[in-house]
Amino acid sequence: xxxxxxxxxxxxxxxxxxxxxxxxxxxxxxxxxxxxxxxxxxxxxxxxxxxxxxxxxxxxxxxxxxxxxxxxxxxxxxxxxxxxxxxxxxxxxxxxxxxxxxxxxxxxxxxxxxxxxxxxxxxxxxxxxxxxxxxxxxxxxxxxxxxxxxxxxxxxxx
Length: 158
Description:
Largest sheet: none
Oligomer: single chain
Distance between the termini: 60 Å
Structural class: mainly alpha
Number of strands: 0
Number of domains: 1
């Protein structure tokens, strides 16, 4: 699932999933999975091992995914409480995660094309998604004509 994002290594996928509990768990998970008993707050111990497992573009894709994907469980609980609807809660969490995947895919595929010149199916998907983003940004705004409000006792001015 995460291979098109450039970080198909199982350790990166596990770290991304543990990031749902709390984003700071990503560094701790990398520390455990790369064989370090303890990782400091800066995470300096693991950077050399981590750099050998993914390219710079893949690392950037990983960062973009983790920054945009669904927040930690505590924030998700607050979202559920504030929305007061299970359907809208899952819609919000799903939207955030899908958006993170799409943006991360575009970052990795375009970055790989620029740095290595590789053009594949992932790049075609990224181009289609970027065209979709651009369309959503520049499409004309249409005022809704379906919402009508009738106030009882309101004066009718002509």
